Amino acid sequence: METELNHMREYYEGGYTKEASWREAQLKGLRSFIIEKQEDIMNALLQDLGKHQVEAFRDEIGTLMKTLNLALKNLKKWMSAKKAELPKIALLTSAEIVPEPFGLVLIISSWNFPFGLSLEPVIGAVAAGNTVVLKPSELSPACSSVLASGLATYLDHKAIKVIQGGPQETQQLLHQRWDKIFFTGSAHVGRIVMSAAVNHLTPVTLELGGKCPAVVDSLSSSWDIEVAVKRIAVGKFGTCAGQACIAIDYVIVEKEYCSKLVELLKVWIKKMFGENPKHTKTISRIVNKHHFFRLKNLLADAKVNESVVYGGSMDEQDLFIEPTILVDPPLEASIMTEEIFGPLLPIITVGKIEDSIKFLRSRPKPLALYVFTKSQTLQRRILSETSSGSLTFNDAILQYAADTLPFGGVGESGFGMYHGKFSFDTFSHHKAIVRRSFLTDFWYRYPPWTLNKLQLLEVSYNYDYLGLLLVVLGLKKPSNRRHF
Ligand code: NAD
């Protein structure tokens, strides 16, 4: 592995990946891969996750194509140097910010959106001119294999490699020296990644997860509540069966409004996934037995089980779990302390919807927070009194599809961001460039220090050029209370 990585470093040093033409060719290669291998991609998603092709297109193929087109359209603009202002003391000097690639980067991704979570960062990394090693998840093997053969065929194999494997292979990769590590996964492994990065002071982006809440205010119009319920149902059960970092983990609602919400959720779950969702194939399957039993165990506690008001059926052979609603399971139970990552939806009731703010503040900062309300006051309060990676009013998941918004967490849900131009920036070092002329040279920046030099420095920091000239000519007196 070390030799292979050394070759990649040498290739990077050769400067090929810094050329705009190289970056463009890789982005076009990725686009051809997605277009030409669309069927293989959909089949692999079906095989690994039972993901319906509409979901596959909505969350992976469609979003990736959008990002690729954006990157191809804006590549030269993103790569260009940006002018910057300088202090007055630097007369006749220009400054700019030049994005330069980090070098050799490692991308470790997760299994729930195997193409999106692998290729969105790859797009940013190659657009920024890096050489890349991608380590997809071992839990979605069909997808990882399509990624490995696809990238080897469509991209420059000297600069972009896929290395498959699980924790052991990832640990081996983490022992190597990288110029940037981009990790998507759990906070537990995020900590392992960060401690490995310490050895070489490698910059890290951690895209983690956690429990994403949805606060649902008592909406009075029947249209509003129906739209809210549809968005909640799709934001939980219709997004890889809740196996998504930004899926709604649980709902908070006023006690009086709870039964209305539950009744409507039942109606819409049936409309979306049929009377017997197992047979409609519109809902994804649980990724493997380990996660199936992890989810089953979340319901094993008697008090949690008592709180189930809808669903709860499971089929181990088919890795199927029915969309399930629980009302007020104990807050200290695992279902309310751990990330659920599956189609179980607890609803927590509060006296007044404003009480949700205290609840949210008592828990780790989530990757996404959803609030369904028409109240401007509640919107303002939630915005200013809570913290989360993103905040979406009256919808769920939508923020992920917006390439104009940064995607990333805060606190326990991670740090750093990507998507659209943010991906390019995440994989670039923004180098500060100053170009100085020899013509102007102010005497007051050199010792020996005098009161007059101090005054002039203060003036050049606080005035424009005219003010500075007036002071130098003695036509304006700077205010100065200092004494030597
Ligand atoms: P995970 O942390 O178990 O695995 C992520 C990656 O790390 C995989 O490639 C895996 O091979 C590797 N890995 C696993 N154990 C390791 C170890 N001991 N040492 C080194 N590497 C190891 O996470 P997961 O099961 O793939 O995904 C679920 C978690 O990821 C959830 O918490 C979810 O919220 C989060 N997630 C976040 C995002 C996001 O964009 N923020 C997206 C998807 C998933």
Automatic annotation (TrEMBL):
Protein's recorded name: Aldehyde dehydrogenase
GO CC term, one of those recorded: cytoplasm
Keywords of this entry: NAD, Oxidoreductase
GO MF, one example: aldehyde dehydrogenase (NAD+) activity
Residue intervals of the Aldehyde dehydrogenase domain: 19-432
Gene3D superfamilies: Aldehyde Dehydrogenase, Chain A, domain 1 (3.40.605.10), Aldehyde Dehydrogenase, Chain A, domain 2 (3.40.309.10)
Reaction(s) catalysed by this chain's protein: an aldehyde + NAD(+) + H2O = a carboxylate + NADH + 2 H(+)
PANTHER family noted in UniProt: ALDEHYDE DEHYDROGENASE
GO biological process, alphabetically ordered: aldehyde metabolic process; response to abscisic acid; response to water deprivation
Classification via InterPro entries: Ald_DH/histidinol_DH, Ald_DH_C, Ald_DH_N, Aldehyde_DH_dom, Aldehyde_DH_NAD(P)
Superkingdom: Eukaryota
Family (UniProt): Belongs to the aldehyde dehydrogenase family.
One Pfam family from the record: Aldedh
Active-site residue list: E207, C245
